[in-house]
Fold Isoleucine--tRNA ligase.
Amino acid sequence: MAAKYREFQQLNLPSIETEILAKWTEHQAFEHSVSIREGATPFVFYEGPPSANGMPGIHHVISRTLKDLVCRYKTMQGYQVKRKGGWDTHGLPIELGVEKELGITKEDIGKTISVEEYNQKCREAVLRFKDKWDDLTNKMGYWVDLNDPYITFQNEYIETLWWLLKRLHEKGLLYKSVSIQPYSPAAGTGLSSHELNQPGTYKDVKDTSAVAMFKVIENSESQFLFDAANQTSTGSDQSSPEVFFLAWTTTPWTLPSNLGLTVGPNIDYVLVKTFNPYTHLPVNVVLAKSLLGKYFKPEGENGDFEGYTAETKLLPWEIIAECKGKTLEHCRYEQLLPYEANSAEKAGGDPFRVLCDTFVTTEDGTGIVHTAPAFGADDYKVGKKYGIGILTMVDREGKFVDGLGEFSNRYVKNYKDDANYVDVNIDISVKLKKENRAFKVEKYEHSYPHCWRTDKPVLYYPLDAWFIRTTAIKDRMVELNRTINWKPKATGEGRFGNWLENMVDWNLSRSRYWGTPLPIWRTADGAEEKCIGSIEELNSEIRKAGEVLGGEVNKNYLHNGILDLHKPYVDEVVLVSSKGEPMHREPDLIDVWFDSGAMPYAQWGLDQEKLKAGSDKPFNAPFDQNFPADFICEGVDQTRGWFYTLHALGALLFDSVAYKTVVSNGLVLDKNGNKMSKRLGNVVDPFRTIETYGADATRWYLITNASPWDSLKFDLEGIKEVQRKFFGTLYNTYQFFALYANVDGFAFREAYIPLSERPEIDRWILSSLNTLVKDVTVAFDDYEPTIAGRLVEDFVDEHLSNWYVRLCRRRFWKGDYSADKIAAYQTLYECLETITRLIAPVSPFFADWLFGNLNAVTGRYAETSVHHVLYPVADGTKMDPALEERMQLAQDASSLVLGLRKKVNIKVRQPLQRILIPVLNPAMREQLEKVADLVKSEVNVKEVQYLTDADGFIKKKIKPNFQALGKRLGGKMKAVSAAIAEFDQEAISKLEKEGSYSLEFDSEPLILQIHEVEITSEDIPGWMVSSKGALTVALDVTVTPELEQEGNARELVNRIQKIRKDNGYELTDRILVKLAEAGNLAESIRQFSSYIKAEVLADGLELVDTMGEEAMAIEVNEQSVKVWVEKATRS
RNA sequence: AGAUCCGUAGCUCAGCCUGGUUAGAGCACUACACUGAUAAUGUAGGGGUCAGCAGUUCAAAUCUGCUCGGGUCUACCA
């Protein structure tokens, strides 16, 4: 006896997964899936390293499912896909976590705790949840190499980063400069953007804002302003008129550092003649035209200048000139608040000019932006462009420097919680008012960032930082980006593309402790600097410095070299310059994004031989075959993170893309569309989800519910639905197969029956199957797993289960082990087996389980896992579009007839004589004839008749084919459409016969072609009719006595089958049946005796007069009858 | 504030690129049927201002613009 297909009580995905997981572990299925492809074309995948200092969430499951399915798919297509895991181990989140845990702040580090101890804590915290992560990886079926991951804090990793940095340094792409960064004077530290994004950082505050007046200097650039002012100058005012630029600020304390005024080149500005509302002196002011309304009332326009006094409420004003911002460029003005400390010389440039830039808006203020390069990123940028120098009149404690007269040494905000603090901003405003230099002073409410630690306002402050000159290759990065296949496309072109267009240099510096140290040593005067590119190089420099400088220098590192590349050790190292001066390390760490962006190189580490040989890619061996990546995938939040840094480093260092395809998946929200957060308590625990519903159902749900890049509303009900609908159906189909295949001992040992010898329906399902394979492959190749999954779902449900199996049920249990039966088994087996391979990438457990169950009996594959076999390839010779089309016709026809039966309430078991189908053309008839038998048995009718218009009793309906006709007719469409609607039967049949029809339209001839209309049959007078599209079906609902008797027989069969089942008989048991008191059923029984016997596997069917108590009373079509069923003894 | 994605039935989504006249599925709901796949299945029904407004067009869920709502990223700036 051959092995049996496994049969089950019910579907239990989690227990299947436990079983498969054990099998994978035992046979090292993952390792094997890679090693069997040794020598094959590699498909390169990069794993974006997660940070293991927090628990994994459900959102990690989606991106990892995507990664996994692509890798599995490519493996099954014959590529070798190595997947090296990795861990991101540096960075602020880790440090903040440790600070919180230890109850310390940044200031404590190096004081109450040594940097050495602190970094040790970070190192311990970093992989705290690694076990949990590994557990999830395992349970969700994510195949990735966890045994040999790259870890960013390891020396080998950091060493490679250093080499890369050195490379950038050599290319002149790594430089030190000032940048304007958020800075907290109260805490005495710069703030990262991460810190600035803490909740509650932005607060609405009321600040004193001032519109300051900058006095224009008369020269050739500004002459036109003065000319206009002079022309309208009135007799009472003999002195030469004064012209001012109006500029608004919410931070008057930045005014002593003012060096420029910025206007928008395309903004319209006006010169307005008016009076200063505080001093009442006549003035001429420049501001943006669209902002006039903020300062001047419409009633005051061209008002009474002569009669203006201090008491006049309404300010008269008049526009006396107009120009674009570009015209104002380079105009000069007098410094607003000159002191000894803020002279033009000290600024070190050519200040007090009007500048142009597009960042200027006219939404607030005056359209002229007061520009203090030290205190704003935009200001700094535009200031640098024009070379106006820089003044930093505030120190790091947040107070004015010496040499600013009455403002010297005053805090610009109340940083010290001083109860007697007097707001210097008010004092500055008052001074301006008195000096005829303020046009408007008022409180202004706006949102402003505050330090999350001290709650004090942040200010933007120039700090030293190291930069990578990404802007140097901006165009190349844009160009390379165009070659990357972005999914979705819009993210690459839009979000990422715009980001590249507006790129600024990459600020690498972080003033923290736990991270990759910048490998740059400098002399005190900064004249000489060294960038170290390897451990070997550092050690040799250490020894050199030890020799030259002598004494205690580097004494801890002279013998064994440096053992840990982190702080504080590297900071203890002193190097020596060519002139014998000591060099100290630049204290910064580098941005963690550099760590992860450099993983294509650093994951392999440096090859010391290649390094010595001076290779320009001195990385360990697999690098050459593993760069660039064919595919990466992470959340959209990585667009400016990992996607960017990978791209930037690939382009900067090797003039290459780092990845060819990138999939950015969307967020996972809760079922109400809210972001998941611990605070709201709506986080979904991935472990519980997987344990309850199974990883496969979860994966399938995540993939098929929405495109990966759309945000997903995660609902457990959806997983249940997938479980029931998809896996349940597929499982049922397998159970059905196994049930009968075990009875018949089918093990695919017979020769493959040629398609030409199989029935229509077999050829149809195999054709559909191959079409499915083709479409699924196209979808996967296009990184559209959602489409692929939905296609498989539709096939399994609609085609395989609800049509093929339903229609073929009898073939499996009826009759001998004939050729037809074998064909049915072979066909269904082929479908199931192919589906296991199709779904293997998405639902790896269930697929492997099903594949194993099938293959265990047939042994068609030598491989023990579906993940080791090849992905199905569509067989064109099995595809037959006409066949698929006519089967659709059959399904539609059946559905229509069943609908009609329902309407007249005649059950399907009651046979009916015939259906009529009007055929519009010979091709349609041919198609229908081929599937007529299927339709007949499906809807239980005896015959199908075809009606042609020759029979004369179809009424046809005509309507324009808008798509075809619209192109030709355009505007006449409406009228012609109305004319077509008026066609009578004669006109329609004329058009059909001749293929065209001419009509007169607007006294112009118009020839209507047959393909420009759609003709359908509308009605068959006197019949029950139903239609869908071009297909119309009529049903003969007459139940003749003969039909009724047959119906009775079938009903009886049905009842006896039920008894068999209730009695618990085996499918193959023979029975004996006795019936009594059958009334008007007796005739049916006699007439259909052999039919009944065959159907219920009865050796005998007897009509008797009476029966004992034990007989069962049943009802058949409202006629009661007594029946007795017993097992027949085998003869 | 800018960029970007999304908005179609009670819920989850197709359809939109390439405009075409009854806007589709599944779930849920209701009724009926089927009963040798049965903790399965089928049929039918109700349920839509395709977020809103304007435009282009003979024709708009589909193309364009604006507005509103939600998400994400970037920024917070005088």
Notes: The mean pLDDT of chain A is 87. The two ends of chain A are 23 Å apart (CA to CA). The CA atoms of residues 672 and 713 of chain A lie 7 Å apart. The longest strand of chain A covers residues 202-215.
